[in-house]
Structure formats: structure tokens, C-alpha cells
């Protein structure tokens, strides 16, 4: 179950003398501090100035409260990994593309690295429901139906995702949304063997999102099938604060675009919700653009590294049937994926900002710390993470593993520095001796 491996339980308890973990713990339950510290980071100060006054005596009751509030479907122990049709294909999809994507996922080795969900986005259905009010797969593009696709994908050991909308039409306005048809549609998805629902926010009639999303959540729980629930509410009503009992992930931002400004701004918007992520429910800064062509290799490396560190869903958004070597290398870095899928499930965050030079970090299982030195500026620069920034004692000796160079520095003390190219990053796991 999601609940037993919550980061607020035993794993954090063993680190209560570390400022880093203490800060993280406090953020979880004192949103006010979160905002205060976010503001100081944004202003160029460092997290070291933050003081957390809470002791650990309230930990047991707060973690119990947290557990009760999680969606109890047993899914999303680690952030979801897979593929989604939207970022590359938009509306131009058909069952051949979905099948070939499933084939490629397995044949090029991405499935073995953990990418399991094959998610169909908008535009899979007919404009109107049938006479009984059921959603209907679009005959011209999905003539075999969704159940046949689910069967196809399942035989390959993968899972099938589908898309609907908490409104009267989907965002493409080419098919119905599920508002007012939640139970019927959840039952339809379950009968087709669907494993995942992305639930969008268009044409929503102004109804409160908490009601609209909760209705579908309940319908899915009652459908008799275990279905991952991905809320796509665009972060409008701060879903991090209420969606953990409703879904397995919730979008914290508007749609990503395939460019540097969009990606970086979304990373920043998502950062302030870090304390709300945990096994069972994750912040979602939207799907990956890696491989779609709008950013440089170093920008995509930064995109993928940050998404892994912040425990974002790793949903590939390019055409993996024609994937190039560089894109494949980025998406298949096992060590970076390992940070995303670490069992502690604590979202890393921005811990230091000095102009365009940033340090992001977060705790991993086994007392390790993941950190990224990120150069968001346009000229080469040296970036230093001090142990103070990472809540390590300055005397601590660590082994530093560079996850992109696949190289080690042993017995590093006090700080770690690297020269970082424009828009590039370095990513490390630090293992204290
Ligand atoms: C599916 O879409 C692709 C890409 O647009 C197209 O090349 C292919 O012909 C389509 N196949 C079917 C069966 O519609
Ligand atoms: C891509 O990788 C394959 C296999 O390693 C190699 O044969 C091919 O030459 C590479 N292509 C390019 C463009 O580097
Ligand atoms: C980075 O640090 C190295 C070693 O201290 C130094 O040689 C180099 O000039 C520095 N580069 C920049 C861009 O500051
Ligand atoms: C480098 O570090 C990794 C992870 O800390 C470790 O598994 C590996 O054995 C190290 N390799 C060498 C050559 O020291």
C-alpha cells in the first residue's frame, strides 16, 4: 500500500537531527513556512535562513492524518512512468500509433526501465455518446475499439491509459466530457480494461473542481478495477492542498510548451508544492517534452533531471517509434530514473539561488542526497553546493556520484563545485560515509 512507505513515517524519523529533513518535515505541515521560505528563495536568499520551530512530538499524529487523507487505491507508490500521445501527436492519433508505441516501448528497452503506461490523450472518441449514453471510440481512427487496444498493450506487459474531462466536452471539443456521466464512464473504462485516467478541466461549467474531481475519483474506486487517477486541473485551485485524497497525481501548472522558458517557469511553479508530494500522490508539472525538438540537448537534460528530482510523472511526450539516440540516452539514464523512483518518495526542491545559478536537492533513501547544480544563465559558470545548503554537517565525507558522467569523486567534504555550461546541469547522488 502507498501508505506504509509514506516519507513522513520511519524514514524521516531517523534523520531528525538534520536540518534538511527537519525543514522538509515542517513544510509538510506548515504551509505558511513553505510560502515564507519560497519567497526568500525567490528573493535570492537561501534556505539556511529558515528556522523551523516545530519539534517532532507531533509527528505521529500528523503522519496518521496524512495517511488517512491519501487516495486508497494502492497505486503510485513511485511517480508514474510511461508515454502520452498529446505533446507530439496532439489530436492526430489512431490505434496504429498507439500499438506501434507499445511495440517500441518494449523493443527499444524503455519498458524494462519502468516506462509502463501507454496513455491515449484527447481525440479518441466520437463527438456524441450512443443511444445508451456511452462514450464511443472514434470509428475512423480507433475501429477496433479501446478494449482491443487494452488487450494488445496488456499482452506486452504494459498498461493502457485514457483521457476524459471534468466538463461537458473535452479540450479539443471533439468528444464529450464525463461531467454528469462519471459512474457510467468509469464503468466503461473499467470494462475496457483501462488502467489510468487523465482527467482534464475544459468546458467545466464553473462547478467547483473539488466536487467534479471527487465524483470521478469515487466512480473509479467503485468501478471494480484499479485505475490510476491523474487530475489535470491545471493548478487553478491549488489542488496540492486538496487532491491527495482524490487522485494519484495532480497538475500544478498550465500546459508545458516545448521551450526553455515554459519548462523553467513550470519547474518553479511546481516547486512551491513540494511538501505535498508523497507515495500515493504526486505533484504533476506536466509531461516531458524531451525529444520533441524545441530545446537543446542540455536543456532537455535539465528538464529530465529536474523532473526526476522533483518526483514528477515521467511521461514521455515524443514519438518513441522514431526516437533518436540522444533522446534515448536522456530518457534511459537508469541512475536518474532511480532518483525519480526512489522509495522514500520525497520531492526535491530549489534550496539555493544566486541569480541564474541554482542548487536543487532532496533526500533519498539510505541517507543519500540527490542534488542538481543548474545553470539557468547564458554563460558558463561555476556552481557550488555547500553541505550547509544540503543540511549535511560540513565535516561529513561523502562519495559523489555524477549521474550523467557516470563517474565518482570519493571523500568529498564541505562543498561540491562544478563548471556548468549554459542551460545545463550536473546531477549527483551524495552518499555520506
Ligand atoms: C495513423 O496516423 C499516422 C500518422 O498520422 C498515419 O501515418 C497512419 O496512416 C494512420 N493510420 C491509420 C490506420 O489511420
Ligand atoms: C545510434 O546508435 C546506434 C546503436 O548504438 C548506432 O548504430 C547508430 O550509428 C547511432 N546513430 C547515430 C546517428 O549516432
Ligand atoms: C571555475 O573555476 C575554475 C577552477 O577554480 C576556474 O579555473 C574557472 O576560471 C572558473 N570559471 C568560471 C567561469 O568562473
Ligand atoms: C561509484 O559510486 C557508485 C554509487 O555510489 C558505486 O556503486 C560504485 O561502485 C562506485 N564506483 C567506483 C569505481 O568506485
Automatic annotation (TrEMBL):
Superkingdom field: Eukaryota
InterPro entries xrefs: Aldolase_TIM, GH, Glyco_hydro_27, Glyco_hydro_27/36_CS, Glyco_hydro_b, Melibiase_C
Top EC category: hydrolase
SUPFAM superfamilies on file: (Trans)glycosidases, Glycosyl hydrolase domain
E.C. no: 3.2.1.22
UniProt domain Alpha galactosidase C-terminal: residue ranges: 354-430
Gene Ontology BP annotations: carbohydrate metabolic process
Keywords, ordered alphabetically: Disulfide bond, Glycosidase, Hydrolase, Signal
Keyword Hydrolase annotated: yes
Reaction(s) catalysed (UniProt annotation): Hydrolysis of terminal, non-reducing alpha-D-galactose residues in alpha-D-galactosides, including galactose oligosaccharides, galactomannans and galactolipids
Keyword Iron-sulfur included in the entry's annotation: no
GO CC, one annotated term: plant-type cell wall
A GO term for molecular function: alpha-galactosidase activity
Family the entry assigns: Belongs to the glycosyl hydrolase 27 family.
Family matches, as PANTHER family: ALPHA-GALACTOSIDASE 2, ALPHA-GALACTOSIDASE/ALPHA-N-ACETYLGALACTOSAMINIDASE
Protein known as: Alpha-galactosidase
Annotated source species: Cephalotus follicularis (Albany pitcher plant)
Amino acid at each position: 500500500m502507498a501508505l506504509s512507505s509514506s516519507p513522513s513515517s520511519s524514514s524521516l524519523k531517523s534523520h531528525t537531527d538534520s536540518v534538511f529533513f527537519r525543514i522538509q518535515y515542517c513544510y509538510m505541515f506548515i504551509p505558511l513556512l513553505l510560502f515564507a521560505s519560497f519567497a526568500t528563495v525567490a528573493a535570492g536568499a537561501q534556505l539556511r535562513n529558515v528556522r523551523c520551530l516545530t519539534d517532532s512530538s507531533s509527528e505521529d499524529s500528523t503522519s496518521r492524518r496524512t495517511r488517512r487523507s491519501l487516495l486508497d487505491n494502492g497505486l503510485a507508490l513511485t511517480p508514474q512512468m510511461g508515454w502520452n500521445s498529446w505533446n507530439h501527436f496532439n489530436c492526430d492519433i489512431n490505434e496504429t500509433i498507439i500499438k506501434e508505441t507499445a511495440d517500441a516501448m518494449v523493443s527499444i528497452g524503455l519498458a524494462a526501465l519502468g516506462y509502463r503506461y501507454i496513455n491515449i490523450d484527447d481525440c479518441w472518441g466520437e463527438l456524441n455518446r450512443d443511444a445508451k449514453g456511452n462514450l464511443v471510440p472514434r470509428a475512423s481512427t480507433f475501429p477496433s475499439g479501446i478494449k482491443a487496444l487494452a488487450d494488445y498493450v496488456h499482452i506486452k506487459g504494459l498498461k493502457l491509459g485514457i483521457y476524459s474531462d471534468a466538463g461537458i466536452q473535452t479540450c479539443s471539443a471533439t468528444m464529450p466530457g464525463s461531467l454528469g456521466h462519471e459512474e457510467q464512464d468509469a464503468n466503461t473504462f473499467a470494462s475496457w480494461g483501462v488502467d489510468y485516467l487523465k482527467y482534464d478541466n475544459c468546458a467545466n461549467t464553473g462547478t467547483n473542481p473539488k466536487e467534479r474531481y471527487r465524483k470521478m475519483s469515487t466512480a473509479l474506486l467503485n468501478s471494480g478495477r484499479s485505475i490510476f487517477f491523474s487530475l489535470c486541473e491545471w493548478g487553478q485551485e491549488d489542488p496540492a492542498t486538496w487532491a491527495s485524497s482524490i487522485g494519484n497525481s495532480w497538475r500544478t501548472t498550465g500546459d508545458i510548451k516545448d521551450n526553455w522558458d515554459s519548462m523553467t517557469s513550470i519547474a518553479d511553479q511546481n516547486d512551491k508544492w513540494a511538501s505535498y508530494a508523497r507515495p500515493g500522490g504526486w505533484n504533476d508539472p506536466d509531461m516531458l517534452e524531451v525529444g520533441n525538438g524545441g530545446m537543446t540537448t542540455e536543456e532537455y537534460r535539465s528538464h529530465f533531471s529536474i523532473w526526476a528530482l522533483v518526483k514528477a510523472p515521467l511521461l514521455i511526450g515524443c514519438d518513441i517509434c522514431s526516437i533518436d539516440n540522444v533522446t534515448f540516452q536522456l530518457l534511459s539514464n537508469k541512475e536518474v530514473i532511480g532518483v525519480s523512483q526512489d522509495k522514500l518518495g520525497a520531492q526535491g526542491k530549489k534550496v539555493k539561488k544566486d541569480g541564474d545559478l541554482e542548487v536543487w536537492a532532496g533526500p533519498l533513501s539510505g541517507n543519500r542526497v540527490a542534488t542538481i547544480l543548474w545553470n539557468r544563465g547564458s554563460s558558463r559558470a561555476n556552481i557550488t553546493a555547500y553541505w550547509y545548503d544540503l543540511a549535511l554537517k560540513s565535516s561529513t565525507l561523502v562519495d559523489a556520484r555524477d549521474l550523467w558522467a557516470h563517474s565518482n569523486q570519493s571523500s568529498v567534504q564541505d562543498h561540491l563545485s562544478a563548471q556548468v555550461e549554459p542551460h545545463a546541469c550536473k546531477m549527483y547522488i551524495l552518499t555520506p560515509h
